[in-house]
Amino acid sequence: MLAQAVSWLRAEQTGGWTDTDPGAVDASGSPTGEPRYDPDGIDALLRTIAEHQAAWEAWFARHGVTPHRVRYEDLAADPSGVTRDVLDALGLPSAGVPVRPRHGRQADALNAEWIARHRSRT
Questions:
Q1: For residue 14, what are the contacts with CB-CB under 8 A and spacing of at least 6?
Q2: C-alpha dist (Å) from residue 76 to 30, 38, 79, 92, 101
Q3: What is the DSSP string of 5-73?
Q4: Distance (Å, rounded) from C-alpha 122 to C-alpha 116?
Q5: Spatial separation of the C-alpha atoms in residues 63 and 9, rounded to whole Å
Q6: Pick from 11, 6, 16: which is nearest to 37 by CA?
Q7: Which letter does DSSP use for residue 95 in this model?
Q8: What are the residues facing 31 on neighbouring strands?
Q9: CA-to-CA distance for 93 and 88, rounded, in angstroms?
Q10: pLDDT in tens, 49-96
């Protein structure tokens, strides 16, 4: 969840939500939002993520649904395989289905630095 919170905070700060999105820019094309480490912002997003996860878990339990779980790290490492697994779980044909990710992973050394910094606080 920490990596998700860090990525979310950076996207909110910079306006860049995908690897192909330059983020918010001014009239000259310069970025308007520079990422800055914000432990309180990360903590708030961790709480939001936990609340959302708990709401989904309650919904699944209430409706007797066993979800097909996908971890982001697995999807980033093997998008074709994970996509085929999802198709299989849905009972849809997956053999020979071309999978071409439209976006790449955005996490970088700054994300890793913020994650380490946040973990060291505890």
A1: 23, 24, 31, 33, 34, 35
A2: 29, 25, 6, 22, 10
A3: HHHHHHHHHH---STT---SB-TTS-BS------HHHHHHHHHHHHHHHHHHHHHHHHTT-------HH
A4: 11
A5: 32
A6: 6
A7: T
A8: 25
A9: 7
A10: 999 999 999 999 999 999 999 988 898 889 889 999 999 999 998 888
At position 103, the amino acid (one-letter code) is H
Total residues belonging to the chain: 122
- pTM above threshold 0.85: no
How far out from the chain centre does Cα 3 lie?
A: 8
Show me where the domains of the chain are located. Answer: 2-120
The encoded tokens of residue 103 equal: 């976006």
